[in-house]
Amino acid sequence: MKPTNASIVSKTRPAAPTGPARWVGQFVLYGAFALAVGVFSQWPLYHPMGADQAQIKVSISRVGKPVGECRKRSAEELAKMPPNMRAPMDCPRERAPLSVDVELDGSSVLSRVVAPTGLSKDGASSIYERLVVPAGEHRLRVRLNDDVRPGAQTHEREATVKLAAGQVLVIDFDAEKGGITLQ
């Protein structure tokens, strides 16, 4: 006697449960998964800082000033160049690094010099730092310099800030809002 296709299938693989048993099994498995997600979303407890601490974030991305002045090319220099490269001014591509200093109550808590990005050092300099400080009233002083030329202006901001426990103060630079901003 030759076996039929139906008898081969039933011998190699048991039949899946059907009806209410299948629905109850899915409900139990999905319920266990949801319970596990719920438990691990609340436990263990995570506290990024202490109950009496606040945080200062320095988040600045800025393109510095060119490291040198532009100069006018002479007629002889322009004549030696291919016609499509004859720009009358020669300006350096390299940008100045970004220098950031943060003082809290008279003591330095951050002093960083960040080089510009890019192969020709002509991109933005970016800094992102988190400082955990005690909550309360503090005297804050921020200095930023993005120009290495002599006599260049340094951006500066002094303020008295009152930080509540768990509060985050963001230090940024926005030229349209007058320079260094505290949010």
Description:
With 183 residues, the protein is of the alpha+beta class. It has 2 domains: 17-46; 53-67 and 94-182, Immunoglobulin-like, CATH 2.60.40. The chain contains 3 helices and 10 strands. It has helices spanning 5-12, 20-42, 75-80; strands spanning 53-62, 71-72, 89-90, 98-104, 107-114, 125-134, 136-145, 155-163, 168-174, 179-182. β4 and β5 (107-114) form a beta hairpin. The model has no long low-confidence stretch (mean pLDDT 89).
Topology:
Blueprint: H1 5-12, H2 20-42, E1 53-62, E2 71-72, H3 75-80, E3 89-90, E4 98-104, E5 107-114, E6 125-134, E7 136-145, E8 155-163, E9 168-174, E10 179-182
Parallel strand pairs: 1-9
Antiparallel strand pairs: 1-6, 2-3, 4-5, 4-7, 7-8, 9-10
Defining traits:
single chain, 183 residues, alpha+beta, Immunoglobulin-like, 2 domains, four-stranded mixed sheet, 20% helix, flat
Briefly note the CATH topology name of the largest domain: Immunoglobulin-like
Reported for the largest beta sheet, the result is: 4 strands, mixed
Number of helices: 3
Shape: flat
Note the beta-strand portion.
35-45%
- Work out the radius of gyration: 32 Å
Outline the low-pLDDT stretches.
none
What is the terminal separation in angstroms?
86 Å
Give the count of structural domains: 2
CATH class categorisation of the largest domain = Mainly Beta
Helix content: 10-25%
Overall mean pLDDT: 89
- Would you list the SSEs in sequence order as H and E? HHEEHEEEEEEEE
Decide which structural class fits the backbone.
alpha+beta
